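FAQ: What does the model actually see?

It sees only this:
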Amino acid sequence: MVWIIIFLMLGSFIASGMLGLFLGEGPKDGNVALIPIHGVILAEQANFFGEDISASSTIVEFIEDAEEDPTIKGILLSINSPGGSAVASYEVATAVKDASKPTVAWIRDIGTSGAYWVASAAYEVIANPMSLTGSIGVIASYLEFSGLLDDYNISYERLVAGSLKDIGSPFKKLGAAERRLFQEQLDALHGMFISAIAENRNLSNSAVKEFSTGMFFLGVNAQKMGLVDTLGGKKEAEAYLEDVLNSSVSFYEYKVDRGLLGLLSEVSSQQSYSVGRGIGHSLTEQKVQGPKVWT
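And it is asked to produce this:
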């Protein structure tokens, strides 16, 4: 059965490729770009056992393409993401803010942390009343195994040039000075995050700081706090864009082209994921290495 599916996919890709050679890409069939931001926001595209990933490089490329295309009059970001790496989130938020065309962020189930940073950079933020938004905070937590090594009489032979080269190693306890240095960096990033939200949402730093504990909020409460402009969904986003553009709206959806090998890999990984979800999910959630900074 699997081989039949693969064979049909291969035939479909060959046929579509041949048509593309003769017909070309053609004009976009809409005047508003619909750009999805689904799953964790990372710098590059990846596939972790079927988990959705949004690559900042791809999203920025989509936004820039929409900016340059004269047939595209506005941009709608469909957001369903818990956030991601600080750098990737910053890259996307910057591209959204730099866009000259009306840009709307539509938060569906979730738009928290780095994903909310992206949303806040849009002209208008629309969220489902029951969606999860906000969570303005930074995290770099990791597992530490030094106690487990002691239990099994395993030693960590520390060889470094530079006293802080192995800071955050899971094989030794974090010293007081190291913890302080880590916290200083996280606090600095948190401050940047707060300042960006304050500027994007026309709020004071002190006002944003009050609810920047990392806690998420329902869309209905986020609106009262000034984090969201309108409660609703795609219909409300379409109405807003029609009003701003003074014309009817039709959407052209940007999609990630994984290619044949990418799709075949996804089919295979989806099967493996169904069987090995426990250990696979654990490995993708927390790797045995130093901390990463997430927003």
